[in-house]
């Protein structure tokens, strides 16, 4: 029989993961604990099972506990109270990308941290995308063995890292996902300056990004680079930079740093070029 999984902090990521594992037959859902009963009821409705609660109840020795609380709440009263119990669940894991399993040491006999590389802004969409999602974990060997088998059986991809490597790992996911959203917003803003309708701009940019990501999946970043900086078209680069800075005067620093980083990638790809100094001047000269 699959383990019974309790959830403390059934936010978007936790409820999607619990539903996905339950649908795959990898667990049975036990308590869904949230400080607000309405949140726990919403999680139960999404998952389709579970006991709504506002405080953790008793847990059996072979149960699992998923802690879906934000990083700065992982030491809140409910977690502290679990450490004082005489009977603890078999294993507990949290979903932080940056914090280690040691943060919940004492909550269960075995502990781990497990981070899914997936955006959970829309739980229904995220649930549909869970197959193939990468999970990066660290913690006690026994917990990792159980969780890894569970994730793989449900259709996920699994890897482990050392605890001290987690901040760098999490930084990589933030740059790849969160900062992509920021860049997309900036690209849409520039498209609006060109008079494109928001729907058309969003569709155009999405198609372009999908092609770029497909190229990146097959080769190193430098080898996937195209465009005027890579070609060494210094005149075009200067004109584009002027347009971008005029349209987004509050993002001049960001745009110039992106240009400099792209120039470095271009040189890595093709070697130094005769127009590189001119492009460097474009990205570093002060605006009047």
Automatic annotation (TrEMBL):
InterPro entries for the chain: 6-PGluconate_DH-like_C_sf, DUF2520, NAD(P)-bd_dom_sf, TM1727-like_C_sf
Gene Ontology MF terms: oxidoreductase activity
UniProt signal peptide: none
UniProt entry keywords in alphabetical sequence: Oxidoreductase
Keyword Oxidoreductase: yes
Keyword Lyase attributed: no
Every DUF2520 domain range: 134-244
PANTHER family reported in the protein's UniProt record: CONSERVED HYPOTHETICAL ALANINE AND LEUCINE RICH PROTEIN
Protein name: DUF2520 domain-containing protein
Organism: Wenzhouxiangella marina
């Amino acid at each position: 029989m699959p383990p019974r999984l309790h959830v403390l902090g059934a936010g978007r990521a936790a409820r999607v993961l619990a539903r996905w594992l339950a649908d795959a037959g990898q667990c049975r859902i036990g308590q869904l604990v949230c400080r607000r009963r309405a949140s726990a009821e919403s999680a139960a409705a999404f998952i389709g099972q579970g006991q709504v609660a506002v405080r953790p109840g008793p847990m059996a020795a072979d149960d699992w506990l998923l802690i879906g609380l934000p990083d700065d709440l992982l030491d809140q009263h409910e977690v502290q109270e679990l450490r004082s119990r005489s009977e603890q669940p078999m294993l507990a894991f949290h979903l932080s990308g940056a914090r280690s399993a040691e943060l919940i040491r004492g909550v269960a006999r075995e502990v781990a941290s497990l981070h899914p590389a997936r955006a959970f802004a829309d739980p229904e969409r995220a649930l549909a995308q869970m197959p193939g999602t990468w999970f990066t974990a660290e913690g006690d060997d026994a917990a990792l063995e159980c969780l890894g088998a569970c994730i793989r059986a449900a259709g996920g991809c699994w890897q482990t890292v050392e605890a001290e490597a987690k901040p760098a790992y999490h930084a990589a996911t933030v740059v790849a996902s969160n900062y992509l959203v920021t860049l997309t917003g900036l690209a849409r803003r520039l498209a609006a300056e060109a008079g494109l309708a928001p729907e058309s701009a969003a569709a155009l940019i999405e198609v372009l990004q999908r092609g770029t990501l497909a190229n990146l999946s097959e080769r190193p970043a430098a080898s996937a680079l195209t465009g005027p900086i890579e070609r060494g078209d210094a005149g075009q680069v200067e004109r584009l930079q002027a347009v971008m800075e005029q349209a987004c005067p509050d993002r001049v620093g960001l745009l110039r740093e992106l240009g400099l980083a792209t120039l470095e990638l271009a040189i890595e790809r093709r070697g130094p070029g005769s127009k590189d100094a001119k492009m460097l001047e474009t990205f570093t000269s002060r605006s009047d």
